[in-house]
C-alpha cells in the first residue's frame, strides 16, 4: 500500500458514521441568551480570545499552521478567519510553519442548550475548518470533545459531527458521529446546530439533525463526560492527519471560513 493510500485510509478512520439520524431540529423562537452577531468594527476580545499556545511547538494532529490574531477580522458584518501561505520568522513564537490562520475561543463557557452558527466554509484541499467545544481544563479525551462541524478540503461538501470521550474516541476507533452532504457548504451560508442535553447530543444542519448520541452507555464519565460547560471554538487548520491526508493546494490559498453569527439558548 502506498504512503498516500495508507494516509488516506488512516484519515478516513477519523470520521464516524455510526450514529446517523434524519429528524427535524429547530432553534428556539425566543431571543438567544448569548450571541455574537459580529456587527462591530473589530472582534470583541471581551468575548473571544486568540489561542496561540502551541505555535512554537506545533499543533495537535500534525497540523501545519501558525495561529495569528492578524488572520481574523470583521468584514461586512461577519467574522472572517483566513488561512494563508506565508512564513512569519519575525514572530517570537514562530515554530517554522509555512501557513498562518486563526483560532478563536470563547472566554466564557456554555453548557446544556441550543447552539447555532451560521457559516460558509472553505473547500480547498488541505483546509480543515472546525466549530467545536472543549472543556476549559482536564486531559483529552477524558473530559470530552464535541465536534459540532468539521470538514476536510479533500472531501469538500461533506460535514462531520463527532463526539470524543475516554471510552469513545478516534484513538481507539470507537468515536461516535455521523456525516452529511451539504452541496453548497462552500458557496453559501448554512446553519450548523447543536442541541446539547443531559441525556443526548444532537447535531444538524439547516434545521435537520443528522447525528444523535444518547447518554445510554455504561461506564460513567469515560462514556459521558458532557456534564459541565465547555468553551466554543472556531478555527481553520491547515494540513494535519485528516485535513492534509491528500496534501495541500497552495495555489488555492488564501482560504476563508466566514461566520455570520454565533447564538446560544441556555437549556432551562
Quick take:
With 268 residues, this protein is mainly beta. The chain has one helix at 3-12; strands at 20-24, 34-36, 48-50, 65-67, 72-75, 78-85, 99-101, 103-106, 113-120, 127-134, 145-150, 158-164, 176-181, 190-196, 200-205, 208-214, 231-238, 255-266. A hairpin with a 2-residue loop joins strand 5 (72-75) and strand 6.
Distance between the termini: 53 Å
Structural class: mainly beta
Number of strand elements: 18
The main sheet comes to: 11 strands, mixed
Give the secondary structure arrangement, pairings included.
Blueprint: H1 3-12, E1 20-24, E2 34-36, E3 48-50, E4 65-67, E5 72-75, E6 78-85, E7 99-101, E8 103-106, E9 113-120, E10 127-134, E11 145-150, E12 158-164, E13 176-181, E14 190-196, E15 200-205, E16 208-214, E17 231-238, E18 255-266
Task: Report on this structure.
The protein is mostly beta strands and 268 residues long. 4% of the residues lie in helices and 40% in strands. It has one helix and 18 strands. Strands 1, 2, 4, 5, 6, 7, 9, 14, 15, 16 and 18 form an eleven-stranded mixed beta sheet that branches. The chain has a seven-stranded antiparallel beta sheet with strand order 3-8-17-10-11-12-13, with no helix packed on it. Residues 1-12 have low confidence and may be disordered.
Kindly list the characteristics that best describe this protein.
about 270 residues; 7-stranded antiparallel beta sheet; 18 strands; globular; mainly beta; disordered N terminus
